[in-house]
Design goal:
Rossmann fold; 7-stranded mixed sheet; globular
Length: 577
């Protein structure tokens, strides 16, 4: 067990065991047999000195009774249960365990329990305590059975707060969770309401709510699970719900002729404006069909995923003139730039992150954003031989990691900086990125593309496939990895198909692949179209091609194939590196 306090001793094993028993005998863990068994096992292993060697396989077999051939990579059981355990610990320490002298945590990235002495005077009020009161549209009483919901994840890390208790609590500050969670887009999930008298549909409502929570937490959001009866005048959620960057997800299930109707909606917390709704007419017996429930949850999560309705609402908020830009604004602007790879969107994304680190220099995620922007500038816009942007990226990476060594986005930025600097250490960093956040679609896809460019097709394409399977919305940009792999495998026609499916009109590397693949495939029309777009995006490409291709640090086979294809497309490449 380790303590994060430099001025206090580490808790003794006896103190840790006492803290463990307090947690396990609390209301939060009263009916949570799986979470209790999980915590008891990993705490015992940590006290025995084996915490850092704990793996998902060991926990699955020892705690959850899985067979010896259990595949921890393919089955997310332990990762999901770990998130649920973290959620319950947050619930416990935000309420009945608020004055405990010792706190137990299960940090992201490993399964070793960490024990720390509570800071004197904790817990403190959050920055939201003084926020404006909730708008009137939320004051109506809603009666829904409460649900113990689960939340899983981020393009970087997701904070999760579980505000679930057997009885409505007295007014109190909302638990903040990890400090950077305060700066994320928040979505409050109200359990779906059963509008019928059929208890089968009550179970369906609970199951759908949990599945939606799991899908939402794969996104870069601050997901808050709650009880519907918390929406009273003195609700501790009112300052969260009524603030900017906050959204509320509600819905219902009811009987209809021949089946069940499920409705879900997302509204802006600050204004009450409905920004998305979905209605699903499902057959009878859906409560016994997990696949159908998963399809609904995936569709709902897509509304909150990048480039969906919540993203559009955040982008509109980011452009309000009187609005002070915060981390969600910068993330939204950056995603808008990456979606279009449009040079016109680059300055505002860069300026947003730069302003943020000047105002909040202790925010690791903001420095990680500065690093990502600088690396993009190096890759897309710096001139031949200009290393200044990459150097700025390195500086920002170091600042982010000094603040939080396990920040997901900072580690993504580190992997990119290493890769584009020619440092093979990026492979180990990429592994850490995936370990820190194994369901983060952006992280999986980004690392998969880099590994494939580097020459590790097997691992790279496996990560991309996982990213695509987890994403609630199609991610055609990830097909770049397939373009690289097909070119390396001497299958240019397949590479052309992958490049043409990317839907990235402003990303020059897509047209590098399309031009080379088209020429090697013998498709003159496709080659001419791709070459014209490539030269429109980069008028000096023929003079700088070898240097620009060199920026990508492709392995020798892929680089030679690309340059050969570009020459076959009629481009006059000058040997400048």
């Amino acid at each position: 067990m380790t303590s994060h306090s430099p001025n206090r001793k580490e808790p003794t094993p006896a103190e840790v065991r006492a803290a463990l028993e307090r947690v396990l005998h609390s209301r939060s863990f009263a009916h949570a047999e799986r979470a209790s068994a999980f915590l008891r096992f990993v705490a015992a292993e940590t006290l025995a000195g084996r915490g850092r060697q704990l793996k998902g396989y060991t926990i699955a077999v020892s705690v959850f009774g899985r067979p010896a051939d259990f595949d921890a990579q393919a089955d997310p059981l332990v990762r999901v249960e770990a998130v649920r355990l973290r959620q319950r610990l947050l619930e416990y320490y935000s309420d009945e365990g608020a004055i405990d002298p010792i706190r137990l945590e299960l940090p992201r990235g490993h399964y070793a329990v960490e024990a720390t002495y509570a800071a004197p005077g904790a817990p403190a009020a959050t920055e939201h305590d003084a926020a404006p009161s909730r708008p009137g549209w939320l004051t109506a009483r809603v009666t829904v059975p409460w649900l113990i919901a689960a939340a899983v994840v981020a393009f970087a890390a997701v904070g999760v707060v579980a505000l679930l208790r057997p009885q409505p609590p007295p007014p109190a500050p909302v638990a903040a969770g990890p400090p950077e969670s305060l700066h994320k887009t928040r979505i409050v999930v109200v359990p779906l309401e059963n509008l019928s008298s059929d208890q089968r549909l009550a179970r369906l409502a609970a199951s759908l709510t949990e599945e939606i929570m799991l899908r939402l937490d794969d996104l870069d959001l601050f997901v808050i699970a709650t009880q519907a009866q918390w929406y009273g005048t003195d609700s501790p959620l009112q300052s969260v719900v009524g603030s900017e960057h906050s959204y509320v997800l509600t819905g219902s299930v009811r009987e209809q002729t021949g089946g069940v109707r499920v409705t879900v909606r997302i509204v802006e917390g600050e204004t009450g404006t409905q920004i998305w709704s979905g209605a699903y007419d499902e057959p009878e017996g859906i409560e016994e069909q997990p696949a159908l429930q998963t399809d609904i949850a995936r569709d709902v999560a897509a509304a909150a995923a990048p480039f969906g309705p919540v993203f559009d609402a955040e982008l509109a908020l980011a452009h309000r003139a009187a609005h002070v830009l915060e981390l969600p604004d910068c993330q939204t602007r950056y995603r808008a730039f990456r979606r279009a790879t449009d040079p016109a969107l680059f300055p505002e994304a860069a300026a947003c992150f730069q302003s943020l680190v000047e105002r909040k220099p202790q925010l690791a995620h903001a420095w990680a954003g500065v690093a990502m922007i600088a690396i993009d500038e190096h890759l897309f816009y710096s001139g031949n031989g200009d290393t200044a942007p990459l150097a700025r990226g390195w500086e920002a990476v170091h600042k982010a990691l000094a603040l939080d060594a396990n920040n997901g986005l900072a580690n993504i930025a580190l992997a990119r900086a290493q890769y584009y600097s020619g440092d093979p250490g990026f492979i180990a960093t990429a592994e850490k990125v995936v370990e820190l956040d194994p369901t983060n679609v952006e992280a999986l896809g980004g690392m998969g593309i880099l590994l494939t460019a580097y020459g590790d097709d097997a691992h790279g394409l496996e990560l991309v496939a996982r990213a695509q399977s987890l994403s609630p919305r199609p991610r055609p940009t990830f097909n770049l990895a397939y373009g690289f792999a097909y070119l390396r495998a001497a299958e240019p026609c397949k590479a052309l198909g992958a490049a043409n499916s990317m839907d990235t009109p402003n990303w020059f590397i897509a047209y590098v692949v399309a031009t080379a693949a088209g020429a090697l495939c013998g498709d003159e029309a496709a080659t001419a179209a791709a070459r014209a777009r490539l030269l429109a995006l980069s008028p000096n490409f023929q003079a700088e091609a070898t240097a620009l291709v060199g920026y990508w640090r492709f392995d020798a086979v892929l680089e030679e194939t690309l340059l050969r294809g570009l020459r076959a497309a009629g481009l006059d490449l000058r040997e400048q590196r």
